[in-house]
Design a protein that fits this description.
It is built from 1 helix and 2 strands, in the order αββ. The chain is an alpha+beta fold. The chain has a domain of 45 residues: Trypsin Inhibitor V, subunit A (Trypsin Inhibitor V, Chain A, 2-Layer Sandwich), CATH 3.30.10. It has a two-stranded parallel sheet with strand order 1-2. 4% of the residues are buried. The model has no long low-confidence stretch (mean pLDDT 88).
Length: 69
């Protein structure tokens, strides 16, 4: 379920917080098939320009054990 009402354009997806990136992308693309999804670390510097198809996902979790080599 998207965060917008019927007939409105979805601009945010609070329901994807806590999901994997893959799952979050599925939800977003269901609501906005033309989305250009960009995955960035939390705190990344971003431009101030507005691109209507861009959706930024900010992540800060280490998903796997870091290993040397």
């Amino acid at each position: 379920m998207s965060s917008s009402s019927v007939g409105e354009v979805t601009k945010s997806w609070p329901e994807v917080v806590g999901l994997s990136i893959k799952e979050a992308k599925k939800v977003i693309l269901k609501d906005k098939p033309d989305a250009d999804i960009v995955v960035l670390p939390v705190g990344a510097k971003v431009t101030d320009d507005f691109l209507p198809n861009r959706v930024r996902i900010f992540v800060d979790t280490v998903a796997e054990i870091p290993r040397a080599g």
